[in-house]
Write the structure tokens for this entry.
Amino acid sequence: AQKITQTQPGMFVQEKEAVTLDCTYDTSDPSYGLFWYKQPSSGEMIFLIYQGSYDQQNATEGRYSLNFQKARKSANLVISASQLGDSAMYFCAMREGFYGGSQGNLIFGKGTKLSVKP
Amino acid sequence: EAQVTQNPRYLITVTGKKLTVTCSQNMNHEYMSWYRQDPGLGLRQIYYSMNVEVTDKGDVPEGYKVSRKEKRNFPLILESPSPNQTSLYFCASSPSDRTRFSGNTIYFGEGSWLTVV
């Protein structure tokens, strides 16, 4: 079974509008972290935002926010006021490892390709 | 500056010719890992290392070897590359102290584009 599921292979959004990229996860570890990365066409992995499983508030970083719904095991990325430079692949990832046998490996979803239209 | 350095960044090679992709980090991290990225599959872990002389298989280890003789270096070895190993490869490092798993504590190299013909 997949541990990280991104159901949207591709998304389009109009410039200046908000967009939500979906991510669901599966873990039995009570302590875990959720990450979002951006990968532009040049290939590098750019860290965007992090949410810990015990964090009480949803994480925010500038135009990025993470809509964390723990009971639903959902960690959607919301990008407000999209810009042309936001066009990229976006990966959701999870790191288990505070307890249990996990070595703390980072597990990735298959990604969502976001295209911002002018 | 904290960084993970991979070399080469781009390589075209032929089937069967042994190659090594180097990875070096300057943050004294215990944990290092290799991933490959393929279209539609995301990033999949090849091997990881919790510390010097401690390595273990990830999800897709076939056709690869690694070694961890020094803390800073974690080379990926393709003994006999095949076309199905054409991919984008990432090295990553982080502290292995689990109390420090939070936040942006995972550093990625810039990626190595490998083509095997």
